[in-house]
Design goal:
alpha+beta; 9-stranded mixed sheet; SynChlorMet cassette protein ScmC; P-loop_NTPase; about 280 residues; 8-stranded mixed sheet
Length: about 280
């Protein structure tokens, strides 16, 4: 049995795997020791499991429920052939089991694929954290999170802050948000999309900035209810699981009331940096 531990959002995640696997570079800096907060044990099976429960969701994955037990069925391609099944009990979500068909184990030969089977959003919700689509920078010790749909300019704004203000880019695509000691913090992840920027670092959240393209630079502070709507739209939410959705709503309601959220309608230029910087310094 091969064991690896990784620190995700300040907590220790342990994977127990019965076969050798490759560990991509981005995971190395997240390696850690210590007592695990979440454990996933991977097991090989020769046949698909039976009696998975009632089918409650069907898309690129199938989701089954049997009492308090949840099973997510993964496919090699869209609904062609199931090859892995992730199980956990809602009453003990810290312990997960993932079955992999023995004939397909070579397809799961790297840590990225194993994490994919574990479902990052499940790890986050077990930690009472939210997974946000964002470019996460650290400036003057505080986290600034640029969030918006793909192609709106998150990476551009993050890079402008890096070049003009010396900000550090912690992650170019995602961040985990979790309240720790009464303070909302953001953590980097070993996933960063096309930006390839993934650092195992964190910062207290100083501001969340919702980006929109515009022909001039304009900035306004969002009220909590409006801020919630925009943040929710860029957060991973499982619509098929009521308890998950309710937890995310509670977390984001608190976040929207605790952290300044701005709407920045902007051009991809230094002026967008200056207008935001002025307000952040005043805050």
């Amino acid at each position: 049995m091969h064991s690896r531990k990784y620190r995700i959002a300040g907590r220790v995640i342990e994977l127990k795997v019965p076969f050798p696997f490759a560990e991509q570079e981005q995971f190395l800096q997240f390696r850690c020791g210590g007592r695990p907060d979440i454990v996933t044990e991977f097991k090989l099976c020769r046949q698909p499991p039976e009696n998975k429960g009632e089918l409650i969701h069907s898309s690129d994955i199938h989701v089954f429920r049997k009492g308090t037990r949840i099973c997510i069925e993964h496919f090699l391609s869209v609904r062609v052939k199931p090859y892995a099944w992730l199980y956990w009990d809602e009453e003990e979500p810290e312990e997960m089991v993932c079955l992999i068909l023995e004939e397909d184990r070579e397809l799961c030969g790297n840590m990225g694929h194993l994490f994919q089977l574990m479902r990052l959003e499940q790890i986050c919700i077990t930690l009472r954290a939210a997974l946000l689509h964002t470019s996460f920078i650290r400036w003057q010790g505080k986290g600034i999170l640029f969030t918006a749909p793909s192609g709106t300019g998150k990476s551009t704004q993050a890079d402008l802050w890096r070049r003009t203000e010396g900000a550090e880019i912690i992650n170019g695509d995602r961040a985990v948000l979790r309240k720790e000691g009464g303070i909302w913090k953001a953590w980097g992840l070993p996933y960063a999309g096309s930006s390839r920027i993934f650092r195992n670092e964190s910062a207290p959240v100083g501001a969340i900035v919702v980006l929109r393209k515009n022909d001039r630079n304009e900035l306004r502070r969002l009220r909590p209810a409006e801020a919630f709507k925009w943040i929710y739209s860029e957060t991973v939410v499982r619509s098929w699981e009521d308890s998950y959705r309710e937890t995310i709503i509670d977390l984001l309601t608190d976040l929207s009331m605790s952290v300044p959220v701005w709407m920045l309608s902007c051009l991809p230029d230094r002026g967008a940096v200056e207008i935001l910087k002025k307000e952040l310094e005043r805050e």
